[in-house]
Specification:
5-stranded parallel β-sheet; 15% strand; globular; 36% helix; 4-stranded parallel β-sheet
């Protein structure tokens, strides 16, 4: 049962709970009208200490489509943290007003800390370069909708794998399914962190590294592109040197399978050329829509209304 639970990292959900959320999301996609009042009288707080477009708006749209209400802030400067209030005090205050909190914070571990002081469930909407579990649910709903299942897939992660919390979260979640393989494509400076590699080793997951997308794209069922995140760099020169390392275009796609799908957590900068958008394999805008349905399913389960 998910009712009343926090969601801090992907492994807070069991495989059966992920399947349950995916199934509910698919039901909502087919018949959204049947779910439009299930959260009536409930309030979601969206506390975003870091900029967001898709995650914040999809949480808010999800709650509104379920008949609930939303309050919160999209900039820490609009909260009392700008006056020096601690995260613990902010959470104690907000949780006394609402039924559920979705929080994004640039500090790793912030969501876990928040959950210790909250009187209502907390959903991690991204904590620094650590985890982003609801993006993972978005990815999983998309993969199941387009591929039919999670087993036996080869997934290529390309770009910023060091700071990419969406990569860390999806790799952890997918590692629980049979015969899954990962290919990590990045420059040396942006390789997956050691803690992710150790996790995969412990789970006996097959993975390889590559420096060039062209060397591996023909082997992939899913290509998961990521941007090089300027906000994670302390040295702007390092960012400028690495930001255009990988750019997916039509020419590179000629090497890929016809049934490969391209995912991206967005926002994109220039790592996917706009000329790719019309390719039938480009699924990142479908992914955006599925994100709202995934969050509708998750909110319903945590609030215990479905």
């Amino acid at each position: 049962m998910l009712k009343g639970r926090n969601l801090i990292q992907p492994n807070d959900l069991t495989v059966s709970e992920i399947d349950e959320i995916c199934t509910l999301a698919e039901q909502i996609i087919v018949d959204p009208v049947s779910f439009q009042d299930v959260c009536r009288g409930k309030i979601l707080a969206t506390l975003f200490f870091e900029p967001s477009t898709r995650t914040r708006l999809s949480f808010e749209a999800a709650m509104l489509h379920l008949g609930g209400m939303v309050e919160g802030f999209s900039d820490a400067a609009n909260s009392s943290t700008s006056k020096g209030e601690s995260l613990a005090d902010t959470i104690r205050t907000v949780s006394s007003y609402v039924d559920l909190i979705a929080m994004r914070n640039p500090k790793e571990g912030a969501a876990l800390l928040a959950s210790k002081f909250s009187s209502c469930p907390v959903i991690n909407a991204g904590d620094g370069g650590h985890y982003h579990p609801t993006q993972t649910l978005t990815d999983l709903v998309t993969i199941r909708a387009l591929k039919g299942n999670f087993e036996g897939l080869t997934i290529g992660f390309c770009g910023d794998l060091k700071f990419g919390r969406t990569v860390h979260s999806l790799a952890e979640a997918m590692s629980r399914y049979a015969n899954v393989k990962f290919v990590f494509v990045s420059p040396e400076e942006l390789k997956i962190p050691d803690w992710v590699a150790k996790f995969l080793d412990k789970a006996n997951i097959s993975y390889t590294f590559a420096n060039k997308m062209e060397d591996v794209i023909q082997d992939l069922d899913i290509l998961y592109m990521t941007r090089v995140q300027k906000e994670r760099f302390f040295n702007e020169q390092d960012y400028l040197r690495l930001k255009d390392t990988y750019i997916l275009n039509r020419q590179k796609l000629t090497l890929a399978r016809k049934d490969m799908i391209i995912l991206h957590p967005l926002p994109r900068v220039n790592e996917i050329s706009p000329e790719v958008d019309d390719d039938p394999r480009a699924a990142y805008f479908k992914q955006v829509k599925y994100g709202m349905y995934a969050r509708m399913a998750l909110i319903s389960k945590i609030l215990g209304v479905l």
